Amino acid sequence: MEETVIGIIGMGLMGKMYARRLSDAGWRVHACDVRAKFESLKEEFFGSERIVIFEDGYGVSRSSDYIIYSVEAETIDKVVAEYARATKKHAIVGGQTSCKAPEMAAFERHLPSDVEIISCHSLHGPHVDPKGQPLVLIKHRASQKSFDLVTHILSCFGSEQVHLSAQVHDRITADTQAVTHAAFLSMGTAWCANSQFPWEHSRYVGGIENVKCNITLRIYSNKWHVYAGLAILNPSAKQQIRQYAESVTDLFKLMLGGHKAELEKRIKTAGEAVFNATRRREEPLLLSDEVLDRFSLGKVPKERTPNNHLSLLAMVDCWWKLDIIPYDHMICSTPLFRLWLGVTEYLFRKPALLDEIINVAVEDNTFRSDDLEFTFAARGWSDCVSFGDFSSYRDRFEKIQSYFAPRFPEATRIGNEMIKVILEKT
After folding, report:
1. Where would you tag: which of 4, 303, 408, 419 has the fewest CB atoms within 10 A of its CB?
2. Would strands 134-141 and 92-95 be described as parallel, antiparallel, or unpaired?
3. Per-residue pLDDT tens for 185-236?
4. pTM for the full model?
5. Which of these, 140, 187, 147, lies nearest to 168 by C-alpha position?
């Protein structure tokens, strides 16, 4: 069994993480990326006894027993089409994309019939320790013996393995990731539009604001395609991102119109549906004041500026409209989703805080310009996803990414510490 050779086609950040983890566990790894990166990859992995870099996927496919395509969901069909015919007879093939529908379609369309299909998806980023994190395994077309082999190979990550179908995987990842990403992308867009570095303003420092700033920067410090594939190629994700934009717009209109009674009824109805006070009343909060205050990019003020937290209110409203109970998917949740769930829960399970937020939403104009830009941003990201426009998605993402880039190292460090704490509690 240890003679098995693992092939990795696509040596981006996740591909490299897989290669290093697997080789450190004693497995032989054959890997490649686009031909233009052949020399640089050879230099990077020079001296690695168990990692061999190939010029292209033909060599990897011919020589490997278990092949993982670690490429963008947008390009999976093209890449599989190019290398599928070189796949070793009776090999096992899988992918590491965040959206399995196009991945499985590509495998079924191009792979020889004797090849087995077992895919995976690590529900975390390349810089997060995989130990204890969810790792989805999908037995799509394979014997139990082959599935046991893949399970054994990937056990070296120390992840929490979850067995799902491709269809269920896509629905759950849409439930736990699509709207979460949309919210943070919209926040970054709004701050950029207002020429703000939020941690330089006291109203965006401390408590819940720390999570907003740190996770927004964490997302924008990654590659755009990590989020584009999930959003654009997953049908469930499109629906949810559209609903989030509608929830943001509806709530903002109620705030502008001063319709406090209607706003309060809608928010509290959504909160009851999602958090169900009778079910979760005795359970401790995922996040505490001490945890929220600990991770700040700026100096925490003595007195905080009240915020209406439109992004959080809209998240819960969206879950309610789509009949999503976020706790049902904790076993397949990402660290970012658990953080986002933690701050929404923190807000909705503190009645006095929720009442204050509703009052602020109607009576205080401090955040009006921010909320206006946030509403524009949420609708803009939704339109971009609905049109299926990867180019526009990339342009929007990278423009904002360049704006925040100087603070990425510090935000990543603080974000890692924050995620470590939330993982200990969930």
Report:
1. 303
2. unpaired
3. 999 999 999 887 776 665 554 567 777 888 888 899 888 988 998 899 988 8
4. 0.81
5. 140
